[in-house]
Amino acid sequence: MFKFVNSYNSLFYIAFFRHFEQDAQLTCVTIVQEPGHRSCLRELAHQLSILFGTMIVINNLLEVGIPLLKTRISVYYQKKRLLSKDKRLSDFQSVPEKEVVLDVYETTLSDYEELAIQFGYVCMFVTAFPLAPLLAILNNVIETRIDSIKVCKLYRRPEPRGADTIGEIECLSESER
After folding, report:
1. What confidence tens digit (pLDDT) does each residue in 133-173 have?
2. Alpha-carbon dihedral sign for residues 39, 45, 47, 50
3. Domain ranges of the chain
4. pTM higher than 0.90, yes or no?
C-alpha cells in the first residue's frame, strides 16, 4: 500500500487535482483553450518521462553496480587473505569457494514490485504519455538481462528448497500424511 501511494500520489495530483489550485503559478488546465495556460497533461507527460528515464538508467545501474562493487571488494579481501596464508591456495579455488563470498539473493519480491509499479504507470497514464508502453518494453528487456546477470554472476546460487506440492497448503494431520 505504501509503495502504491508513494509511486502514484504526485501523478494523481497532477492529473486530477492540480487544476483546482487557486494560486496562479500552480494552476494548470486539463483542456488548453487560451494560450497563457499550462496543460496538466503536458506536465504529467513530463513527470512520467522523468520517472521512466530514472527507472531505465539509474535503477538498473544501481541494481547491478552495488552488488558488483560488493562482490569485487569481498573477492579482493579474500584473495588478500589467501595470499597471506599460502600463495598456491589462491590459484586453486573451486566454484563453490569463489561463490561463498557472494551475497545471498533473498527474494524476487522487489523485482516483481518494480514491474507492478511500472505496469501501473503504463495502464493509468498512457493517455498523457503515449511513449510509456515502448519505454516499458525497453525497460523490461534491459531488466531481464540485468536480473540474469545478478542471479548468475553477482549472487550465490539459491539454496534449493523441497516442496510437497506446487504451492497449495494442505491441512492434513500427521497421521494422514
Report:
1. 999 999 999 989 988 888 888 888 777 777 677 655 555 55
2. negative
3. 42-154
4. no
Q: Is 3 helix (H, G, I), strand (E, B) or coil?
A: helix
Q: Evaluate the CA torsion angle 57, 60, 66, 71 in order and state its sign.
A: negative
Q: What is the pLDDT of residue 71?
A: 82
Under DSSP, is residue 155 helix (H, G, I), strand (E, B) or coil? strand
Cβ neighbours for 150, distance < 8 A, ≥ 6 positions apart: 63, 64, 67, 105
20 grid coordinates: 483546482
Q: Kindly report, residue by residue over 61-110, the tens digit of the pLDDT.
A: 888 888 888 888 887 887 777 676 665 555 566 777 777 777 887 777 88
Q: Are the CB atoms for 142 and 52 separated by under 8 Å?
A: no
Are 111 and 64 within 8 A, CB to CB?
no
Q: What is the SS3 assignment for 160?
A: coil
- What pLDDT score was predicted for residue 114? 87
**Which residue shows C-alpha cell 549472487?**
155
> Quick one: which of 46, 6, 38, 47 has its CA closest to 19?
38
CA–CA distance, 144 with 149 (Å, rounded to integer): 9
Chain centroid to CA 38: how far? 32
